């Protein structure tokens, strides 16, 4: 297991400042520029970068815990910065296996680069294993990418976009090409299309690539379409699912806190003016929510620890990771629902924090792995592949 000489950069005062801005960013549909500036200043964006590269050297387990705390204060801010943390986590995981093909990401995180995740595409439910974006080879080993990427979280701020497309023209094609693209490239544009039910401050706008150029030194993989044993795919899946689960666990954690506050604040004439914290039905709801959350904390801790230790779970790794994401998002949704019932009618008003958590937590339905994919992955791990 990794240890870190550096404590968490997320101090209580910083987190409270971030929480104090969350409602306004949600209401106004604005990006949390101030939050990001403070997270950069405290070194949070280089948390998982090894010390040898100039980072804080925090483990995946430590950063997952940090993300739970950050999401409990501002879910959309946590989701936004997650994408940068995923790429730095991927680079760290590969580095620890002796693969420095993404060492430039670790160096870049220390020198101020902010990395975006440009993978999801409209109509592509194969996600990492195929693409509808075209990757056209260029002389010298570079590529030009043409296609649309959706849910490009951190859109107003990323400086380099990690993306992928398919090369169908090279002699050894088709190949899925992975590369980074600079924001200043003239072939990169963004749609102002992020007006959503929840996670509004993440500003996960669509990114349009029209011949966007990736230099040869920014092209880091060419893989056959379909499932791949390449360590990159595992590193992406593991870091993405663990850190994504952390965000939704943070939402659930905050929902329980708000339910407790509401139970202690609200009173009941039916029960002689006592607080709802004395009502057996309300006590059951709070207890149910707390018990559901108590099951998630050791799960994410254990899998993040195993990622740090490069534990060999063999073919079960993907089912464990997709299962964690599914349980985290579904459990958090149920916990927020219980908290709303404890909070009462005031939570239905615009601007209420629990009402905002209710909208934010629904985004978990749409992140990979979705419920269908997670169940298919786990079924394959236990039952083997289907014969169709």
Write a short abstract of this structure.
By secondary structure, this protein is of the alpha+beta class. The chain has helices spanning 12-28, 33-41, 60-73, 75-96, 103-110, 231-265, 280-294, 296-309, 317-343, 353-361, 371-383, and strands at 115-118, 134-137, 143-152, 160-167, 175-182, 188-190, 205-214, 219-223, 267-268, 274-275.
Tags for this entry?
single chain, 388 residues, alpha+beta, four-stranded mixed beta sheet, four-stranded antiparallel beta sheet, 11 helices, AcylCoA_DH/ox_N_sf, Acyl-CoA_Oxase/DH_mid-dom_sf
Explain the overall architecture.
- It holds the Pfam family Acyl-CoA_dh_2.
- This is Acyl-CoA dehydrogenase.
- Residues 243-367 form the Acyl-CoA dehydrogenase C-terminal domain.
- InterPro entries: Acyl-CoA_DH_C, Acyl-CoA_Oxase/DH_mid-dom_sf, AcylCo_DH-like_C, AcylCoA_DH/ox_N_sf, AcylCoA_DH/oxidase_NM_dom_sf.
- This protein is an alpha+beta fold and 388 residues long.
- Helices cover 47% and strands 14% of the residues.
- It is built from 11 helices and 10 strands.
- The protein has helices spanning 12-28, 33-41, 60-73, 75-96, 103-110, 231-265, 280-294, 296-309, 317-343, 353-361, 371-383; strands at 115-118, 134-137, 143-152, 160-167, 175-182, 188-190, 205-214, 219-223, 267-268, 274-275.
- The strands form 3 sheets. A 4-stranded mixed sheet has the order 1-4-5-8, with helices on one face. Strands 2-3-7-6 form a 4-stranded antiparallel sheet, with no helix packed on it. The protein has a two-stranded antiparallel sheet with strand order 9-10.
- Strand 9 (267-268) and strand 10 form a beta hairpin.
- Helix 4 (75-96) packs antiparallel against helix 6 (231-265) and helix 6 (231-265) runs antiparallel to helix 7.
- It is globular.
- The two termini are 41 Å apart.
- The model has no long low-confidence stretch (mean pLDDT 95).
């Amino acid at each position: 297991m990794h240890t870190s000489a550096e404590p968490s950069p997320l101090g209580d005062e910083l987190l409270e400042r971030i929480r104090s801005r969350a409602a306004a960013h949600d209401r106004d549909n604005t990006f949390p520029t101030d939050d990001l500036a403070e997270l950069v200043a405290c070194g949070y964006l280089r948390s998982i970068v090894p010390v040898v590269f100039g980072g804080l050297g925090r483990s995946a387990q430590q950063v997952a815990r940090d993300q739970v705390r950050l999401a409990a204060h501002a879910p959309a801010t946590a989701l936004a910065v997650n994408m940068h943390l995923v790429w730095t986590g991927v680079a760290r995981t590969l580095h620890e296996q002796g693969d420095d093909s993404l060492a430039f990401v670790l160096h870049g995180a220390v020198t101020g680069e902010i990395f975006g995740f440009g993978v999801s595409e409209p109509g592509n439910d194969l996600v990492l294993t195929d693409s509808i974006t075209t990757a056209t080879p260029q002389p010298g080993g570079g590529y030009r990418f043409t296609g649309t990427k959706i849910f490009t979280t951190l859109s107003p701020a990323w400086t380099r976009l990690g993306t992928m497309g398919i090369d169908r023209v090279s002699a050894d094609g088709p190949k899925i090409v992975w590369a980074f693209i600079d924001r200043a490239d003239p072939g990169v544009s963004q749609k102002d299309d992020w007006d959503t039910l929840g996670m509004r401050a993440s500003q996960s706008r669509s990114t349009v690539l029209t011949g966007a150029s990736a230099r040869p030194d920014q092209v880091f993989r060419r893989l056959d379409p379909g499932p791949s044993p390449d360590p990159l795919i595992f590193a992406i899946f593991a870091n993405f699912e663990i850190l994504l689960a952390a965000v939704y666990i943070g939402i659930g954690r905050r929902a329980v806190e708000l339910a407790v506050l509401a139970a202690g604040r609200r009173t009941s004439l039916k029960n002689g003016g006592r607080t709802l914290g004395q009502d057996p039905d309300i006590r059951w709801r709070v207890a149910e929510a707390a018990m559901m959350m108590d099951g998630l904390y050791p799960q994410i801790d254990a899998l993040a620890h195993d990622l740090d230790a490069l534990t060999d779970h063999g073919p079960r790794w993907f089912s464990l990771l997709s299962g964690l994401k599914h349980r985290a998002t579904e459990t958090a949704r149920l916990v927020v629902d219980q908290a709303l019932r404890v909070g009462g009618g005031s939570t239905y008003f615009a601007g209420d924090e629990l009402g905002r958590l209710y909208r934010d937590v629904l985004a978990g339905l749409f992140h990979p792995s979705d419920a269908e994919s997670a169940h298919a992955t786990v079924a394959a791990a236990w039952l083997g592949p289907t014969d169709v």
